[in-house]
Specification:
The structure is a single chain. This protein is of the alpha/beta class. It folds into two domains: 41-175, Nitrogenase molybdenum iron protein domain (Rossmann fold), CATH 3.40.50; 177-258, 3-Layer(aba) Sandwich (Rossmann fold), CATH 3.40.50.1980. The protein has twelve helices and eight strands. The strands form two sheets. Strands 2-1-3-4 form a four-stranded parallel sheet, with helices on both faces. A four-stranded parallel sheet has the order 6-5-7-8, sandwiched between helices. Helix 6 runs parallel beside helix 8 (134-145).
């Protein structure tokens, strides 16, 4: 026989005295919800960069954003991200006077610990509201440290879910790609997971003697991304990969075809 849940007891258990609250995360939700809301683009970024093991991901945001990122990065599904996700926590002072100085200091500390091959610099809602010039900062940091820095913006107030985070991270990787002589290779862009070997598309490519290059999103090295420009064609199988395909066509002269799901 089902027992009636005592919601009142749950609420009383989660209530805190004011003296027990030192940080916002000390305030516990009084009741669970069946749908707490959508994930923000930050989730999409983390889902994508976990497959770039050579990159260091730097999250710049409030303690809520950075705590959320660290929480996800420590989950088993995110693998190597646990060791390569760095938080830059901003406070009231930074919101008033700007976050650039603190971010510069954090990047300097990263290079003191060991030079990364690539940095993915992720801005969050508050940074986009106060308008710090992170494009200029990226130019300055690349000139100083001579490594590529991919800037990904994750303001949730301009989108409804996490998918733009995936799209923007994929699009940012075009900076790592090099224009080169074409080979009999195609890339597949936008698929949520690498295609299975028995998929119809891969079977058709094999029958035609065409080599498969990159599948993005998907696990790849910086060298793999650098070689993406050798493809004769990009096959876009989801809208998530469409902007990257357009950028590759403009900058690397790799044409694309788009087959919506």
């Amino acid at each position: 026989m089902l027992q009636k849940k005592n919601y009142g007891a749950d609420i009383l258990h989660n209530i805190r005295r004011l003296s027990e609250v030192n940080e916002q995360r000390d305030i516990k939700p009084l009741m669970a919800t069946s749908f707490p809301g959508t994930h923000c683009p930050l989730m999409g970024v983390l889902m994508t960069v976990r497959q770039l093991p050579e990159a260091v991901t730097v999250i710049v945001g409030t303690d809520e954003c950075t705590y959320y990122s660290k929480l996800l990065a420590n989950m088993k599904i995110f693998g190597s991200l646990k060791e390569s996700c760095v938080s830059v926590v901003i406070d009231d002072y930074d919101v008033t006077f700007g976050t650039i100085k603190k971010t510069k200091k954090a990047v300097a500390e990263i290079f003191e610990a060991g030079a990364p091959k690539c940095i993915v610099l992720v801005t969050t809602c508050v940074l986009e509201i106060i308008g710090d010039d992170y494009d200029a900062l990226v130019d300055e940091l690349e000139e100083r440290y001579h490594v590529p820095i991919l800037l990904v913006r994750t303001e949730h107030f301009q989108c409804r879910d996490h998918l733009p985070g995936i799209e923007r991270t994929l699009t940012a990787t075009v900076k790592l790609m090099r224009k080169m002589p074409t080979e009999n290779v195609v890339n597949i862009l936008g698929n949520g997971a690498p295609l299975q070997k028995n998929s119809v598309l891969l079977q058709l490519l094999e029958q035609a003697g065409v080599q498969l290059g990159l599948q993005l999103p998907g696990k790849c090295s910086l060298q793999d991304l650098a070689l993406a420009g050798r493809a004769k064609l990009n096959i876009v199988v989801d809208e998530l990969g469409l902007e990257l395909a357009k950028q590759m066509q403009e900058k690397l002269a790799v044409p694309y075809v788009y087959f919506p799901p």
